[in-house]
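go over this chain:
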Amino acid sequence: MLSMATGNSYIDDLRSKPEVIDLPENEQIIDVGEHVSDTAQSPLKPNVTVSSSVRDLLECPVCLNAMYPPIYQCSNGHTLCSGCKPRVHNRCPTCRHELGNIRCLALEKVAASFELPCKYQSFGCMGIYPYYNKLKHESQCIFRPYNCPYAGSECSVIGDVPYLVSHLKDDHKVDMHNGSTFNHRYVKSNPREVENATWMLTVFSCFGQYFCLHFEAFQLGMAPVYIAFLRFMGDENEAKNYGYTLEVGGNGRKMIWQGVPRSIRDSHRKVRDSFDGLIIQRNMALFFSGGDRKELKLRVTGRIWKEQVVPLNK
């Protein structure tokens, strides 16, 4: 048997590998948690204190995430999550004994009795949830933070909407505008350059909300195109309360797009790759630009509105 120091070094080595381990979905744990009611969106419950020593028992020694069924153990009783089991090549990362397929049913059942606060408590969620419902709730929690909507770099900042608005203004130097109408001009000296084209992002404040207007160049198959679209800084169910139009034109022609802003829960790339916006072929964009067609000069105008809720007749 290797010494404990060697085992810990082995665990540290596993942790250092840049591999993402997805926690098991809720469907995989119903054999243990089926007697626990689905309270993913339940109201507040009395808090149940779980000691740190018990929490440590439910922490995988490799990825340090909470363990969910199936939880495996070696012959010496050391436990491991199912996500990390393939990574250790069937060897216990603590004592290096063979793992096999021994389930730690006792620990799985103990976990079913716990109730824990949502991990987004600091963002405002005060709910207390059964251990096996906690993951499902957190994946849908309305208080979970948003990713930074800036598309010009891989920004890892997360936070609530007020924090991200300040972050966009102070760190990304994004233009901020008040009002529900806009008139922007996009100029590029060499429109042939589609790769690494500069992303344009402008934030609008209206109706007590914030909206992100994106404009960029990208390849649609073999054809270079420009796209403009609007994202709502909030959840999808709120985004549906708004609409917007985008208009671009020149030389007596125009193109108009009308749509619903997408929530920033959907990534910039997801919205762009679904073509959910005003798409302008490069040849058409240069035609709108006028002149000798060697410089991009596009004027994009638009409007944001709040949909009127029609009350039902009694």
About this structure: Residues 4-16 form the longest helix (13 residues). Confidence is low (pLDDT under 50) at residues 1-7, 18-49. Residues 117 and 128 are 4 Å apart (CA to CA).
